[in-house]
Write a structure and sequence with these properties.
With 373 residues, the chain is an alpha+beta fold. The chain folds into two domains: 5-81, Winged helix-like DNA-binding domain superfamily/Winged helix DNA-binding domain (Arc Repressor Mutant, subunit A), CATH 1.10.10; 91-163 and 184-205 and 272-370, no CATH class. It has twelve helices and twelve strands. The strands form four sheets. The chain has a four-stranded mixed beta sheet with strand order 6-7-12-11. A hairpin with a 2-residue loop joins strand 2 and strand 3. Helix 5 runs antiparallel to helix 10, helix 5 packs across helix 12 (319-340) and helix 6 packs antiparallel against helix 12 (319-340). The longest helix is centred in the N-terminal third of the chain and has 29 residues, at 91-119. It is globular and about 70 Å long. 40% of the residues are buried.
Length: 373
């Protein structure tokens, strides 16, 4: 189904029925929200504007109000209670985001020799992974997404999401027809203090979007980081029953996460060890801090001015969502400029499951900003 509004969610929500994405996925909900995104209207006025009977509008407004996405302000008047920008309103934000993205990419280009030199010292080189196989992970995932977001939170430039009626903590926002970037991406991850996995996702990319490892299977990945091992060896190291190990590793091999060469299983994706995290994440954090201090922070005054110019003061409590929205727009345009300047190749539309997928041993501090307060 074609989307009138492209919504983005940041945070956590455990209530499936009240999840904002579920409540706003219908075209009717989106048409209603666009009608009242910045103006109070009655259900009759909304229905007349979008060509739908008032009763259907009332039913949809009640659904949306269950998680405070709309609010009844005065008798029969309703208005959206989160940030939505229509195609005209988003233009100055997109223009500013493109300018900032251009500066960010220029900064990263200057850092490439140092980043590549540090990469050569990492154990993933011994796992036979090249810079070209990991450039999207390091530049797009670790710097443009996780690193910059981590720095923004550590420097207090984004407030933690507030608690919501569904019991979760999240920000939610919508842009009519999206960010105007040619490419969109993000990072989905599963992590513990012992390690984790993550992958790059994109609406343009067809590939699995969940970790192939259940929590109690993570030790298999940790054990296989150093060298190819048999199921018997993995069972001995992890203390997992050998039959269960054999079944899991065969399944991972059939899905191409591992290669099975004469009974020894070798990971087909990079696994960063703890010393790698110390090397590469230190550089990622340094570069990300520079981007925030030298590129993003100086534009914060202009950014705040746009918020006031749009007369969004009634949504001051959603300023954190406004910030997240803007930083995500920048992130997508950074990827556009990475590709168009030749720093990264074009993102594939179809790829093996291991494209943009990686694991690590130890705690990845860059993910700590996403934990609920």
């Amino acid at each position: 189904m074609s989307q009138l509004i492209e919504f983005s969610f940041y945070g956590s929500s455990d209530n499936t029925w009240l999840n904002p994405h579920i409540l706003t996925r219908s075209l009717l909900a989106q048409r209603i929200l666009l009608s009242i995104h910045n103006k109070e209207r009655t259900p009759s006025d909304i229905g007349a504007q979008i060509g739908v009977h008032k009763d259907y509008v009332v039913d949809e407004l009640r659904r949306l109000s269950q998680n405070a996405l709309v609010v009844n302000t005065n008798e029969d008047l309703w208005i959206a209670d989160f940030i939505i920008l229509d195609a005209e309103e988003k233009k100055p934000f997109v223009d500013l985001a493109r300018d900032i993205a251009s500066e960010e990419v220029s900064r990263i280009r200057r850092e490439l020799p140092q980043l590549k030199a540090v990469f050569e010292k990492c154990s993933v080189r011994n796992q036979c992974f090249t810079w070209e196989q990991m450039d999207y992970i390091i530049l797009a995932a670790l710097i443009a997404d996780l690193g910059v977001n981590y720095s923004l939170h550590r420097k207090g430039m984004v407030a933690p999401p507030p608690e919501r009626p569904d019991g979760g903590r999240w920000y939610y926002w919508g842009l009519e027809r999206g960010t105007d970037s040619k490419r969109q991406f993000g990072v989905n991850s599963y992590s513990t203090k012992l390690g984790g996995t993550a992958h790059i996702w994109s609406r343009l990319l067809t590939k699995p979007s969940i970790s192939p490892f259940k929590p109690d299977e993570m030790p298999l990945m940790f054990a296989s980081a150093n060298q190819p091992l048999t199921a018997s060896e993995l069972a001995q190291i992890t203390q997992i029953e050998e039959a269960a190990v054999e079944l899991k590793m065969k399944r991972l091999s059939s899905d191409s996460y591992y290669s099975d060469a004469e009974g020894k299983f070798k990971a087909n994706f990079p696994i960063l060890r703890e010393n790698d995290l110390g090397l590469i994440i230190r550089e990622v954090t340094r570069v990300s801090n520079t981007i925030v201090d030298k590129v993003i922070k100086p534009k914060s005054v202009v950014f705040r001015r746009l918020f006031r110019k749009m007369k969004l003061d009634r949504l001051n409590r959603e300023y954190g969502a406004y910030q997240c929205m803007f930083y995500h727009i920048i992130m997508d345009h950074v990827l556009d400029q990475f590709v168009e300047s030749g720093i990264l190749p074009e993102m594939p539309k179809k790829a093996r499951v291991t494209w943009g997928f990686w694991g690590w041993i130890g705690e990845l501090e860059l993910l700590s900003f996403s934990k609920s307060p």
